[in-house]
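REQUEST FORM: STRUCTURE PREDICTION
Request ID: SP-0412
Submitted by: Lab K.M.
Chain count: 1
Length (residues): 199
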Amino acid sequence: MLALLALLLLKDAPPPPQPPPPALAWACDRQSLLAGLRCTFEGKTRAQEPSKAQVDENQRQARALGLELCATAATGRAPQAIPAVKAACEKRLELEVAACGGDGSRRLLDDDGRFNPGHAVCYAALRAVTEVAQRSQDEAQGCCSCIDVGRGAAFNQCVADVDADRLPPGADKGCRSFCAAVLLRVVRAPAVSPSAAAR
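STATUS: Completed
RESULT:
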């Protein structure tokens, strides 16, 4: 009887309050870039009078951070970086560094390595570069290792093919599951007419 009464009371009791959603407390920094985490721009550097020197310094700092990110992304869990992935990442980085100057009124990073407000465009550019390198490294490790082209020039060529959405020789034979991502992109890529390619 007591058990039945307890069940009835529990049934009519209001549901327990739900915990509040987790706060978005991760500051935008090197770690959040690598992990692809949502973050906030919490850098504490105060704004100053805009200057070209600060724009140049921000781009220099972004390049240095980007090179470090490229090396880390091109390594992944492997013992060392895959040269072709690292080189492709660094090439993309050079195209994106121009977006990292800001308006020249605030440093890119504060003293604790956090991105300052006003540098969201740079952060997004560096994240895009890092993300492509991480994807390429992961796919190259699986696909090119399965094709078993060794670790020399043939491996680097395989990685370069994967990075450029070209099908490495052998990917469509016994390594379809390991090379599925690049196979899918090659299949989905729009055909380019000879006249368009010649332009």
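NOTES: Residues 33 and 124 are 9 Å apart (CA to CA).
Reviewed by: T.R.
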